[in-house]
Amino acid sequence: MTPAQRLRQLANVVNLSTPLGLMVAVASRSTVSRGPRGLLIAAGYDWKLPHAGAFTLGNVILYRAPHGIAGSNAVLLGHEERHSTQYAYCLGVPFLALYGIAAGWSMLRSGNPASNNFFERQAGLAAGGYIDTDHHRQDGPAGKGIEAS
């Protein structure tokens, strides 16, 4: 792991977002394994919410896909890894409230929770499987998304 990845890993333990992710993984009876770059892959998540095929809590990426398939899509893994970085710079669990606000704003603006969601745009809409319905938006360099560190 790079120093930045270790820092993200440590930050997400200290800010309690990774422990929360592990608690959700255990409670949902997901199979947890080590992933790349300090991430943990939780496979077989089957609770109804959220509706996504994968979502992130700290450094834990929860997939609906079974073990062996979860984490195998490098593009989706990169998208979720960028969310892991967002948890670190939002100081952990507050990310959930900030994400909720951004999703609500996006619903008001575009009719879906992703197109105008700052966090999804930064993580890469297409990489997360989202369609950009905001045809009027002119992305500059900031709209390109952050690199997973």
Automatic annotation (TrEMBL):
Q: Which domain of life is it from?
A: Bacteria
The answer to whether UniProt assigns keyword Membrane to this entry is: yes
Record's keyword terms, sorted: Membrane, Transmembrane, Transmembrane helix
Entry's transmembrane regions: 87-108
Record-given protein name: DUF4157 domain-containing protein
Taxonomic lineage from the root: Bacteria, Bacillati, Actinomycetota, Actinomycetes, Micrococcales
